[in-house]
Amino acid sequence: MSPEARIVLASASARRSALLTQLQVPHRVWPAQIEEARLAAEAIEQCVQRLAQHKAQAVWDALQAGAAGAALAGLPVLGADTIVVVGDQMLGKPRDRDDALRMLGLLSGREHQVVSAVAVRTAAGSRVLLSRSGVRFRPLERAECEAYWDSGEPLDKAGGYAVQGLGAIFVQRLHGSYSGVMGLPLFETAALLAGAGIAVLGGRQRSDAARG
């Protein structure tokens, strides 16, 4: 029998679920159904934080309102969002092959930013933290970008690559949060969970980071 869930993950991402499992936090997956779009004139960091909070809030509301979520109602809900930024462009998940190849071409031979936000919604309200990391790609050849697309990995990944998969061969340098580049920054996640009364590794996570 699996451990009883202590939080609800408002995401269908297998990567985020695996990272929570890495923290030894039993959880249930309940994907948020929201529109993920940037508002007019919205700053990138504001956008990613808003989307993370919106996901957590949407699932929190659904659990409180519906019989299907009655067993989970009241549990903290964790939402996250990740955006790849190159220059002044935001790169989400590629629409198709051509879009993925365009993204990889933009990332080739230069540094880009990966901005991840994680939010936790509890009965006391919502808290959110932000992680920003820099990733530099080596120059990429068209043929290897095409082969990478054919692997199937880029399809549902922000920026069209997965740092934990085949896409790692493109990464020349990374500074910041590796787990944040994957889609769930674990330092910030553990701090927020501690603030919600959920300890990681059996101890109290320092909560001063969660006050930001």
Concise synopsis of the structure shown:
This protein has helices at residues 14-22, 44-65, 97-107, 142-150, 178-182, 186-195, and strands spanning 7-9, 27-29, 77-86, 89-91, 111-122, 125-137, 171-175. The chain has 212 residues and is α/β, with parallel strands linked by helices.
Cα radius of gyration in angstroms: 17 Å
Total beta strand runs: 7
Structural domains: how many: 1
Please identify the structural class as seen in this structure.
alpha/beta
Question: Percent of residues in helical segments?
Answer: 25-40%
CATH architecture: Alpha-Beta Complex
Which band does the percent of strand residues land in? 15-25%
Question: What is the number of helical segments per DSSP (H or I, 4+ residues)?
Answer: 6
Question: How would you characterize this protein structure?
Answer:
The structure is a single chain. It contains 6 helices and 7 strands. The protein is α/β, with parallel strands linked by helices and 212 residues long. The chain has a single domain (7-205), classed as Maf protein (Alpha-Beta Complex). Strand 5 and strand 6 form a beta hairpin. Helix 3 (97-107) crosses helix 4 (142-150). The longest helix is centred in the N-terminal third of the chain and has 22 residues, at 44-65. It starts with 6 loop residues before the first strand and ends in a 17-residue tail after the last helix. Residues 205-212 have low confidence and may be disordered.
